[in-house]
């Protein structure tokens, strides 16, 4: 079966990325059901949120809790919408499906997912894989690419995963309990305490985080600059909140010390050190009471848990993926801190794909077109004969 006969479903806890492997780009949408105060009777599924007239105070119903799929009713509702005629319009009985799952997924969740794909959707074949496995498998095999250290900064967690000749080293994986959810919640708390009550505005604050935040390269310098008067303050920005009539998405005003802060009808949030103190949690989780190491320390510890002969290869092939890795300055900060912590004689190189969010989907689409793809699938006939046991034997998750 060709790439046109394969559906790739990167099933993230926050965003779902789906599309046929032959498509150029995936459909990206919230992996949730949402309810709005303005339209109480109607739930919005996935990309239907674009039809909501007023998304203030949006309430999310998620299938995932703490990184793992627990609410199958919600997930099936989202999947039905994605596969149905309003979105992709697919007949899954004729398709192979590549679906992602989190690292260290529970056996019960794996079994339920496999059963739903074969029994509910009647798929022709199934490949379950970690998103990180797909990203690494898609890279061409080269002498300088024998090992890879993947940093997956997602919604619920950040995972640091060493791969040696394409196989993940399970005992060396490190997990940090900080991801996009913690960052958005922290931003809501800071702004609610300092300026305006926004604890119910997850949708808007998530957009503000994406539009305004960056990773500091020098924390002390930036804190001093953020405290300067407006005319001398390079950090200060104003964010225009959406009113969902004339403005559907907020935006950050360009820096202009001479301009008046607010035009008529604008509601502003003033941002100074919030812009870099929120992403700083990825490097210092203890700032919000999470007693864990930050990403650079986790990278060094993960490498140290691997055989010494692999260390040079891992340090020179650190790859950043996931939505929380998109902050400006993130790659440079990871490089600078790992370079300071790693042995001096070992070269360090940190790379990032053009779009860290859709990286796993594109890797899955690429894999679907390769000759080795069929050997990694569990077919419907195999499922009917062996049940879930064949999945345990076939999938390396």
UniProtKB/TrEMBL annotation:
InterPro entries named in the record: Actin, ATPase_NBD
Record family assignment: Belongs to the actin family. ARP6 subfamily.
Gene3D superfamilies: 3.30.420.40, Actin, Chain A, domain 2 (2.30.36.70), Actin, Chain A, domain 4 (3.90.640.10)
GO CC, one annotated term: cytoskeleton
Cytoplasm recorded as keyword: yes
Sorted UniProt keywords: Cytoplasm, Cytoskeleton, Nucleus
Source taxon at top rank: Eukaryota
Locations listed in the record: Cytoplasm, Cytoskeleton; Nucleus
Pfam families registered for this protein in UniProt: Actin
The gene coding this protein: ACTR6_0
Protein name, entry field: Actin-related protein 6
Main localisation: cytoplasm
């Amino acid at each position: 079966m060709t790439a046109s006969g394969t559906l790739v479903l990167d099933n993230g806890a926050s965003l779902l990325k789906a599309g046929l492997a032959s498509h150029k780009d995936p459909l990206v949408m919230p992996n949730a059901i949402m309810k709005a105060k303005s339209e109480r009777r109607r739930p919005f599924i996935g990309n239907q949120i674009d039809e909501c007239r007023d998304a203030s105070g949006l309430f999310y119903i998620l299938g995932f809790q703490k990184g793992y799929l627990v609410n199958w009713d919600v997930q099936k509702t989202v999947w039905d919408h994605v596969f149905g005629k309003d979105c992709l319009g697919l007949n899954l009985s004729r398709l192979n499906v590549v679906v992602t799952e989190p690292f260290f997924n529970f056996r019960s969740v794996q079994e339920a997912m496999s059963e739903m794909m074969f029994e509910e959707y009647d798929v022709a074949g199934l490949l379950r894989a970690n998103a990180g496995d797909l990203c690494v498998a898609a890279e061409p095999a080269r002498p300088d690419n024998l090992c890879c250290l993947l940093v997956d900064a997602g919604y619920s967690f950040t995972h640091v995963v060493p791969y040696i000749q394409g196989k993940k080293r399970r005992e060396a994986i490190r997990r940090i309990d900080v991801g996009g959810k913690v960052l958005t919640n922290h931003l809501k708390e800071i702004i609610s305490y300092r300026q305006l009550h926004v604890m119910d505005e997850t949708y808007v604050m998530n957009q503000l985080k994406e539009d305004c935040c960056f990773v500091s390269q020098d924390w002390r310098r930036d804190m001093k600059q953020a405290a300067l008067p407006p005319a001398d303050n390079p950090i200060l920005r104003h964010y225009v909140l959406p009113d969902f009539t004339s403005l559907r998405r907020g935006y950050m005003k360009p820096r202009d010390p001479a301009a008046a802060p607010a035009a008529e009808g604008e509601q502003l949030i003033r941002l100074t050190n919030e812009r870099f103190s929120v992403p700083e949690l990825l490097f210092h989780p203890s700032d919000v009471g999470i007693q864990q190491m930050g990403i650079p320390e986790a990278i060094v510890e993960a490498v140290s848990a691997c055989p010494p002969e692999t260390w040079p290869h891992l340090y020179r092939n650190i790859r950043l993926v996931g939505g929380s890795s998109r902050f400006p300055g993130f790659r440079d900060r990871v490089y600078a801190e790992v370079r300071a912590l790693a042995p001096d004689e070992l070269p360090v190189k940190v790379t990032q794909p053009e779009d860290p969010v859709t990286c796993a989907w594109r890797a899955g689409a690429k894999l679907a077109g390769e000759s080795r793809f069929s050997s990694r699938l569990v077919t419907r006939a195999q499922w009917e004969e062996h049940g879930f046991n064949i999945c345990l034997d076939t999938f390396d998750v």
